[in-house]
Predict the structure.
Amino acid sequence: MARHVRPLLHPTEQDMGRREQDFKRRMTDKIVTLTIEKLAGLGDGLAVHAGHRIFVPYTLAGDVVRARIVRETKDASYAAIEEIITPGAGRIQPVCRHFSACGGCTLQHVNGDDYRDFKQQMAREAVRKAGFDPACVEPLLCMPTASRRRVDLKVYGGRLGYYEEGSHRLVDIEECRVVEPALEALLLRMKPKLLALPGLTGVQINGVDDGYDIVLSGGGSSKWQVAGEKDVRRISVYERKEARTLFESGPVTVRMGEVTVNVPPGAFLQASREAQAVMTRFVQEAAGDAPDVLDLFAGLGTFGFPLSTRAQVTAVEAEWAMVKAMKEAAARHTLADRFKAERRDLFQSPVPSGELGDYDAVIINPPRGGAKEQCAMLARSNVKKLVMISCNPATFSRDARLLREGGYRLKKLVPIDQFVYSPHLEINAEFTK
């Protein structure tokens, strides 16, 4: 996943029709009564019927449901709820009217204790699969419910929202309980204007200092009027794979420690400001007094700039716009002698083990796909301190296994519930060799 977010390619109406028809052809007419045993790794309820595993979204332990089998494979089947016969003891009323239609939040029906236990077990299982002792996993840190500062919305057929679960049908949202209240209010105010723009296919919004940065995808956007929207810092539109600014009320920045960085349109930022602050403290404590630090997949210097107050930092990032922003910020804050930004595609050209040995600590914050090639190099290196920030427990397990085979010890892991109500989890891990 690129760190500098570009618009997604949106399916045409014909494409969507074909996909829906293919999905319906896979449907079966089999209706079964199931007792859900537990929440499985991706947040679906798991039942066993006639010796066969069946996964049912929006269920939990203790639910007795009538479910329609929608897809069958050799190893498992996947079903949709027809009726909840008896709700499990942990079932609660969802907070959002779009729950079970919108594919964004899948765990709003799970009570707080069971929800937190599910996330905690995700972290422990990720550690176990990597071959480490789960005893190193610390208690889950929960972020506020309405704390996401970043959204990526689709526009199609007079609707603005998120895709339905397992579908390319859009849910036309009237609320979103996981985003910052100011972002939800802004989004609902802008919705009629956005839907009136001909050719618009997507809207990305990032929370920045003093407001929000908006990136539009599709044509017909250049005449949008935003008078009176004091929360809007900038509006850009992607044309020919480049962002063109339509409106800007002033500098569009984020604070990384004591450093103010200009934000390129659509740049990668952590989904929650609160979670970013927690992760930054974790990285600082884990890096300790290391005098020379390498920051891989550095983004806009989220972790590197705060570390530069006490260490020499080399920040590596693939996207030129973000590298340029870090260079300019370092020069503006007279940090050029302590903070260096380099452009490098770490998937195509990972930093080799010999070069890694020049650093006392390495920070690595890969995208959801992980960083298998770079972790293989780290495993062969002599780096004593390694901090990994991962948003995907599955790829964390794979990459951490490489590190273990290379002689690393997992000293501490802190799970953070940055993606509230979803089956996703942020992992903060400290390794030593």
Summary: Residues 70 and 141 are 36 Å apart (CA to CA). The first strand starts at residue 31 and ends at 35. The radius of gyration is 23 Å.
